[in-house]
Amino acid sequence: MALSSPQLQRFLATEFNFISNTKNANRNHLTTTTVISARSPCRCSAIAIDAPSSLTDVAGIRWGSTSVQGTREEMEDDLIIRSDGLDGFSFAAVFDGHGGVSSIKFLRDELYKECVTALQGGILLKGGDFNAIKKALTVAFENADKKLLNWLETIGEGDDESGSTATVMLIGNEVLLISHVGDSCVVLSRAGKVEVLTDSHRPYGSNKASLQEIRRIREAGGWIVNGRICGDIAVSRAFGDIRFKTKKNEMLKKGVEESRWSEKFISRVVFNEDLVIASPDTFKVALGSDAEFVLLASDGLWDYIKSSEAVAFVRNQLREHGDVQVACDALAQAALDQGSQDNVSIIIADLGHTDWQSLPLQRQSFLYEFGQALATVGIVSLGIWLSSQVSF
């Protein structure tokens, strides 16, 4: 069973990283409850249909969910998981608000209702026509935004400028559908390999998605200053944000009053479309037996932890104890430990294809056998050390 040098290096890197990451994951797990509760202000909640840890729904998916306020003065994130109303498909969404909490409070239930209606209670999902599903979800998002804008006009004398991103997952029949507005992100762990499934809607950067957003904003009559639309908002697709939709002219006049720009400047501005939109990007992903779990989180996680690191962290957590909710809480704590200054909201959907509890035993058995094989070909000291790492 002699391995070439490159093979040996790859194996050692994988296995030693597994041992190290397991210890680190366990340390984060042990500190999650005490450290989170000690932070102020901070909130951590499992919203998975008000059910216990690691809820398993009718589709065999185990869910975990966490929202942590962190150091922010206000909690402007929210999330929802529903396993009813869509004929065997599960619905999960993360909302990342800004400028207040009004928009996320409205959207948490309203967007779900609009999706159920547009998808005909799941009939379209069962039918599998992606174009029909995509069109329905676009209608649902845009209808929810129209209702939100009308509602914002009625509260606070129409001065509520709050908004919210939203990323929705629909899972069923070995298919994952994503409808996405904003800068939250969805990643899939497929046999340990990371697949990033969404692009952030931000008006800066040189990637394809950002360049498309920049072009759309400029064609609509807007401008970008320091990565922000009209020098104000750093996300280009969102619900609400009334000043960039139905009150664009009022926004210009307010800018003059605040000396942000001149009367001469606004006399040259012509708006053709809304600067911020709620039309989603929609994707379809086939799952299959190698799909382990889906991780959806707000940018309070992704701005501080890479997708590959987050997936490795969750995998090690699930190997350690198999509890999806505990893994969620520990990942949120890890983001805070990395210095996240934002609210952090996380949903994990364990797809039920992996027996996490059997993996440590499989790995230990492999380590032992590999160590014995090394010893037989003369690499005695390393072989003995590897074998000693096993505790059956």
From TrEMBL:
**Matching InterPro entries, A to Z?**
PP2C (IPR015655), PP2C_BS (IPR000222), PPM-type-like_dom_sf (IPR036457), PPM-type_phosphatase-like_dom (IPR001932)
Q: Which UniProt keywords apply?
A: Hydrolase, Magnesium, Manganese, Membrane, Metal-binding, Protein phosphatase, Transmembrane, Transmembrane helix
Pfam families, per the entry: PP2C (PF00481)
User: What cofactor does this protein call for?
Assistant: Mg(2+); Mn(2+)
Q: For the PPM-type phosphatase domain, which residue ranges apply?
A: 62-351
Alphabetical list of PROSITE patterns matching this protein: PPM_1, PPM_2
Protein name, per record: protein-serine/threonine phosphatase
EC class (word): hydrolase
**What does the UniProt entry say about where the protein is found?**
Membrane
Q: What is its EC number?
A: 3.1.3.16
Q: Which GO terms describe its cellular component?
A: membrane
Indicate how the chain sits in the lipid bilayer: Single-pass membrane protein
Which CDD domains does this UniProt record tie to the protein? PP2Cc
What are the GO MF terms of this UniProt record?
A: metal ion binding; protein serine/threonine phosphatase activity
So where does this one cross the membrane?
A: none
Q: Which family does it belong to?
A: Belongs to the PP2C family.
Main localisation: membrane
